[in-house]
Write a structure and sequence with these properties.
This protein is of the alpha+beta class and about 450 residues long. The protein contains seven helices and 22 strands. It has helices at about 5-20, 115-125, 215-225, 240-250, 315-330, 360-365, 400, and strands spanning about 5, 55, 70-75, 80-90, 100, 110-115, 140, 170, 195-200, 225-230, 255-260, 270, 275-280, 290-295, 305-310, 345-350, 395, 405, 410, 415, 420, 450-455. Strands 7, 8, 9, 10, 11, 12, 18, 21 and 22 form a nine-stranded mixed β-sheet that branches. Strands 1, 2, 3, 4, 5 and 6 form a six-stranded mixed β-sheet that branches. A five-stranded mixed β-sheet has the order 13-14-15-16-17.
Length: about 450
Amino acid sequence: MSMRLPPFLRAFVALGVLVLACGPDESPTPPPGPGTSADAGSQGDAGTDAGAWTSCDPASALDAGTCGTSASCVSTEIPKGDFCADICSDLTPCKQPNTFCCVAHPNQDVGYCLSVEECQRRADAGTGDAGPSPDAGPFDSVDAGSTVDAGSEVDAGSSIDAGSEADAGSEVDAGSPVDAGTPDAGSDSDAGYTQLRIMAANITSGNLQSYDPGHGLRLMQGVKPDVVLIQEFNYKSNSVADIRDMVDTTFGTDFSYYREGGAQIPNGIISRFPIIESGEWKDPKVSNRDFAWARIDIPGPHDLWAVSVHLLTSNGTDRNAEAGSLVTFIKGKFSQDGVPASDYLTIGGDFNTDTRSESCLTTFKQVVTTVGPHPVDKNGKDGTNAGRTKPYDHVLVDDDLYQYRVPTVIGASSFANGLVLDSRVYTPISEISPAQSSDSSASNMQHMGVVKTFLTPNF
């Protein structure tokens, strides 16, 4: 029978297994040999799963061809080597004998099926705490004015992309002396794996392109993201106190945020983990927002660089020019350093793309993976506009992070490739409480949220 072990029980369980399985001169019982497990089916060309403890090559696991869709290539010490470890959760327990569902923290939804000895080793190994990083602090920037978006009407209603009066400046988690408010990088232990749920959210409603009405806030609360790439980041007066209150009440007081300054409909990043650096890169095609970015200290040796974007509605040529400019910033040609190749990268938000073959997505391929299969809703539809016919919104990641993708598990539901959040069709709605069925159909609701989940190693 499979088990799901929180870190503080691993030592006791491991000791019990060793006492039962080993004599005085015996080594721990090795896991079973290679086998096969059922094909995931809905993963398109991902292939059949290799099963637990099949040898694999981490370099070739990127495209899921080696381990399939329900396993990942994991390096272990007990036994030593690289193996296809099944992804597990409360809904999908480990099927192979002598394997256990090893997660970094009991609050996480998913883990890997590993030997109990390996799970115990990872709990004992640990990594140094990332610690707090000083808050970059609030600062003022010149107001961008009230220029409207050079595009067509917003998808959900008749309002043009004008929004309310532009914000006076930018903020980085303003309100506490350290960015995130707690000394640790999150609730995960220092060993094992960290669940990283990333959400793209242009889900404002009402007449002012803001989160005041509350529909979008409830939707975000319902899926519990760790990192949100948010658009139209407006709330009440847009004061530091109001934005901080929005983050605190929606996500928690331990969440950090960055919101670009001088923007009429600003982009931003909200994170469960500390934001240690942030800023904005110029969008060459529009004056009322830029590309907001944040460097996030997630557990483990690699940071996550998150970029929140809101491309123009005007045409594909403009969107491709915006994508080209952003890629140049990421590569460091316009900025001093760019994004280090050793760190993780995600670009997400409202791309306003009419199809998945738009040229801007081809341009983004230089730095992130754009291939499918793609997130869908409860009915299998992948469109994110109000009519659910166009792929406007995306969460894209680089190859380094893409290899750690796992199903998005919410309550008793599992979405193999991620979720398009449409409360109108989500059942049971209680799984995404406090969201209500009518939230996604609210007046002038912009788009649907997009959620993807990853399980990154802390070592």
